[in-house]
Amino acid sequence: MAPIEKSDLLQGTLDMLILKIVALGPVHGYGISQRIRQISKEVLQVQQGSLYPALHRLEKRGWLEADWGASEKGRQAKFYKLSEKGRKQLASEESNWNRLAGAVANILQTEPAQ
Amino acid sequence: MSFWKSLFRKRPSDPQMNCELRFHIDELTDENIAAGMSPGEARRRAMLEFGGREQLKEELRDVYRIRLLDATVANLKSALRFIRKSPTFSSTVILTLALAIGANSAVFSAIDAILLRPLPFPAADQLMLVEQHNAKGTAALTRVAPVRLDDWNRLNSTFQSLTGYYTEDVSESTGALPEKVTRAWVYTRFFQVWGLAPALGREFSPEEETIQGPAAVLISDRFWRRRFNADPGVIAKTLRLDGHLYSIVGVMPATFLFPDRDTDLWSPLPPGVSYGRARENNWFIVTGRLQPGVTVAQAHADLATIQAQLARQFPKTDNLSISVEPLKETTIAGSRRSLWLLFGSVTLLLFIACTNIVALLVSRSAQRQHEISVRFSLGASRGALIAQLLTETFLLALLGSGLGLFLAAAASDIFRSLAAQLPRVEEIHLDARIVLYSLACSVVVTLLCGLVPAVRSTRRSLAGSLAQTSRSQVSARNPLQWLLVGIQVALAVTLLAGAGLLLRSFQELGRVTRGFDSSHILAFELSMNWGETGDMKKLRQFTDHVLETLRATPGVEAAAISVGVPGVAFKYQIELKPLEGRAETEPKLIAENRFVSASYFATLRIPLLAGEACRETDGPPTVVVNRAFADAYFSSANVIGHHVQSVEMGYTGAAEIVGISGDARESGLDQPPVPTAYWCAPVAQPGTYFLVRTSNAPMTMAETIRRQLRDIEPMRSAYDFAPLEQHFSDGLAENRLRTILLSFFAATALSLACVGLYGTLSYNVNVRQREVGLRLALGALRGQIVRQFVWQGLTVCLLGCVAGFALAAASSRVLAGLLYGVSPTDLPTLSGVILLVLLVAVAASLLPSIRASRVEPMQVLREG
User: Fold this and answer.
1) pLDDT bucket at A23, cuts 50 / 70 / 90
2) What's the whole-number average pLDDT of chain B?
3) How far apart are the first and last CA of chain A?
4) Cα separation of A113 and B253, whole Å?
5) Is the predicted pLDDT of residue B79 greater than 50, yes or no?
6) pLDDT in tens, B422-453
7) Chain B CB contacts of A53 below 8 Å
8) CB contact, 8 Å: A62 with chain B?
9) What are phi and psi of B722, to 5 degrees?
10) Separation between Cα atoms, residue B833 and residue B822, nearest integer Å
11) Is the CB of B59 inside 8 Å of chain A's CB atoms?
12) How many whole angstroms separate alpha carbon A8 and alpha carbon A15?
C-alpha cells in the first residue's frame, strides 16, 4: 500500500496525532516523525515541512511545552511535552474522532436493502 | 486568553531554530550511515530529504508573526462589506453615533476654547486682574484711581508692569451718519502688558502718550473690516470722535478682543491729567503682567504691603484691601458651572447611545451565529474573530464620529449664537484637538459597545451550534438586553428631570413680580464722553432739553434717565454712612445704588410709598430709598429726613432721604429686592440709559425718536434701541442656553430610549413567535398577549424610572445652584416626567405587542 500523501492528512488530524505521540513521553521533533512512521506501520509519513510548523503552532497555543535537553547521543535537541491544556485538548479531540469514525463505519456497514 | 499569552510568548530565535533543524538532519544522517552510506553521501541524502531549510524557517517564523498589517487590512475590507450588506443596521448605528459624538465634540470644543486653553496672549498665565476693595464692608468698588496705579507701579517688585483702562461709548462722525463706537482709554504700558503688537501700523509713540502730543488711535480688526473693508491704507486716516480729530496709527490683530469684545478703538490716556489726581477718582480697571516665576500669592502679598503703606500715608482714601486674580479665572469663572453641566449631559447622551448600539450589536451577532461557527470550524482563532468584530464596530464608530464632526461644524454657528453671552466664544473652532477628541470617543465607543457582544458571540460552543437553529428555543430571556433598556430609561429620566426643573425655573422667573412695569418701555443711549462732565451746568441743560423733546413727542407718555438698566444687575453696591450717627452694633448701610431722574418712578410705575420723588433743584443732593432699605436699616425710626453720604464717591456730598419707594427687583429678576438707594441725578453721563414709556409697541417709536434727537443734537448718535424686556432676556441668556440644550438632550435621550425599547421588544416578539402561536392555539385571547408584552415593556420602564430618580436625587446638588423658585424635588415636575416616560413606554410597546398578537398560530406551528 502506498503511504498516504501529506495533502491527504488534514491539519487537525496531524495535530491530534502529534499530541498523542507526545503524550507517551517527552520527545523531540525527529523522534515524533519516527514514531508516527513506526506505529502506523509506514502508512503515515509526515514531512518536515508540515511537522515543524505544526509543532510550533501547538507550542504557541499552549498545548505543548518545550525544553532544551540532550538526546540519547548527547546532541542538543528541543524536547516537547504535553501541557495540562494539551492533555484536555487531546482527550476532546480523541472523543470527537472516535464519534466521527464510528458514525462513518456505521454507514459503510449498511447492507443494501433486499 | 491564549491569544494574549501567545502575543507575549518569546518566539524562538534564529540560532534556536537552526539548532532544532540541524539536530533532525544529523539524526537522518546517522540513519543513512547506519544503512550503509558514506558520511558525505549520507549527509547529502539527509539534506535532500529534509527539504529547503530557509523555506522551513520562514514558515516557522510565520507561525509567530502576527501579520498585523495584513490582518487589519483584511478586517477593514470585510468590515466595509458587512456595513454595505446591512444598510438599515449600519445607518441606524452611524446616525445614532453621529448625534451623540457630534454633540460631544461641539461641547468639548467650547470647553476646550473657554476653560482649558490659556488666553490668546503670550505667557497668558502671567496676566492678572487687580482690584481694590473697601476694607470695611462687603461692597466692592473695584476700580482704581490713576494716582494709586502710579504708586503701585513705582513701588512694586513682583509685576513687570501694571496698567489700566476704562471704556466709554463715543460718537464717530466722519461718516454720513454719526456712528456709535466703543472707545477704550488706556493708560501707559497697556500694550506692553498684553504683549501683542498691532497687526498693521505701530503702537503709540511716546509723544502721543502725553497731553499735548498728537491725537492718535488704534482701531480693532472688527472695526477695520466693517468700516474700511480691510483696506491696508487705513493708516494716517482720521476719525472724528465727539468732535475731536484723531489719526489712526495702527490696527490690532483679530484675536485682541480685550478689554471687551465690543471695543472698537484704543486711545492713550496721558498720565497726569488734572482730573486724575484725586485719590478718590476711581476709574481704572487694572490689569498687570507678573514677572516670570512670581506666584499670585507673592504678588498679592507685595501689593498688600504697599497698600498698607499708602493707607498710613492717606488714611482717608486709601484704607483698602487688594485682590489679585489670574485674568483667565475672572473671565471664565461664571460660565464654568454651565459648561460642565452641558458636558455631563452630552456624556450621558453618549452612554445612552452606546447602550442602544450594544443592544443592536447583540441581536445582530445572535443572527450571525452561523457564520461565526463556520469560521471557527475553518480554523480561525478566537482572537482573530474578536479582532474582526471589533474592527467592524470601530469602522461604524469612525464613520459616525466623522458625520458627527460634520454636523457639529455645520451647527457651530447656531451654537455660537446661542452661546453668545459666554466669554471667549470667538475662540471656539473645530481644530485638530477636537478631531482627536472625536477619535478618542470612537475608540471608547468601540470598546464599550463592541467588546461584550464580540466576546459573547465567539464563545466556543461545541459543534452543536452548527446544527442548532434559534427556532428550537421556545423562550428567550435576554436579560442583558432588558438591562440595557432599563439603563437607557434611567439615564433618560435623569436628563428629563433636570430639563423639566430648569424649564419650570425659567417659567417661575417669568412670573416674578418685578415691582415695576417693564412693558412698553423703550431704552436707548446717546453718545457722550467723560470730558463733558467738566461742565455740569451745560450737561444739565442738555439732559433737560432731551427729556423735554422726548416728552413732547406724540406717542411718548413719559421719559426718564437712569444709569444702568432697571432690573439688570448693576453691581454698584456701596456702603453709605449716615450723618446722624449710628450705633456700632447696627448693621452697615450697604445698598445697591441707582442714579435716576425724578421721572424714573413715574415712567417705570414704581409706587412711591412715602415722601416725595427726587428734588431736582440745585440744592443738596437727594435720595429716595426703597422699602427693603427702610425696613432693613431703619426699622424703628422714620427714615425720611436722615442724611447719608457715600463712603467712596468723593464728589457727592451728604444727601437727604426724601422718600420711600416700593421694592423693585433692580439687581436681576432672579434675586429678591435688595436695599436700594436711588440718587437723584438729573444729569446724563456716559452710560446713561434714556427710558421712554410709549403708548404702542416700543420699537415702533424708535425711528421717530431718532429723528427728533438728530434735529436737536446732530453731533450725537442715538443707539442701542431696544425694548426693556429684551435687556432682561439678554441677562437670562445663559440660563436660556442651558435650558434649551438640556431639553434638547433630554428629548434625544428619551427618543433613543424609546427606540431601544421598541427594538428590544420587537426582537423579543420575533424570538417568541412559537410560544405565542402555541398559546393562541391553546385558546389565549389576543388581548391577553398584547397586555402581556406591554406589561413587560412597562415593568422595565418602571424599574428604569426608579433608578433614574435615584440618580437624579443624587445629582440634585449640582442643579440646586441653577434653579430659581423650584426645589430639586419638585413634585409636579417629577410626576410629569414619570407620566411622559410611561406614555412613551406604552406607545413603544404597543406596536410590537399588537404585531405579536396578530401571529397566525397554524403558520408558526407549521414552521417550527
Assistant:
1) very high
2) 81
3) 34
4) 100
5) yes
6) 777 777 878 888 888 888 988 888 888 888 88
7) 56, 59-60, 62-63
8) yes
9) -160, 145
10) 15
11) yes
12) 14
| Domain architecture of chain A: domains with CATH | 6-108 (1.10.10.10)
Domain boundaries, chain B: 2-66, 137-318, 335-467+478-509+734-863, 528-716
Contacts with A71 from chain B: Cβ below 8 Å: 23, 27
- Quick check: helix, strand or coil at residue B155? helix
Integer CA distances (angstroms), B459 to B369, B451, B478, in order: 10, 13, 17
Helix or strand holding residue B321 (H, E)? strand B320-326
Residues forming a β-bridge with B101:
none
| Angstrom distances, CA of residue B120 to CA of A19, B116, B172, B176 | 69, 12, 29, 36
- Closest approach of chain A CAs to the CA of B463, in angstroms? 10
Quickly tell me which residue has 434559534 as its cell: B470
Give the minimum alpha-carbon distance from A73 to chain B in angstroms, rounded to a whole number. 9
pLDDT-wise least confident of B17-21, B158-162, B278-282, B523-527: B278-282
Q: How far is A95 from chain B (nearest CA, A)?
A: 13
What residues contact B200, with CB distance under 8 A and at least 6 apart?
B224, B232, B234, B235, B250, B251
Distance (Å, rounded) from C-alpha B60 to C-alpha A57? 9
pLDDT digits (tens, 9 = 90+) for B231-281: 888 888 888 887 788 888 889 888 787 777 788 888 888 776 666 667 777
Distance CA B754, CA B356 (A): 10
Alpha-carbon distances of B780 from B790, B846, B857, rounded to whole Å: 16, 18, 11
Q: Which amino acid is at B597?
A: S
Model's pTM, two decimal places? Answer: 0.65
- Pick from B507, B112, B111: nearest CA to B342: B111
Asked if residue B522 lies in contact with residue B691, where contact means CB atoms within 8 angstroms, the answer is: yes
Interface size, chain A vs chain B, as Cβ–Cβ contacts under 8 Å: 60
What angle, 0 to 180 degrees and rounded to 10, lies between the N-to-C axes of helices A29-39 and A11-23? 100
Place of cell 488704534: B218
Strand partners, A27: A80
Unique residue bearing C-alpha cell 427710558: B691
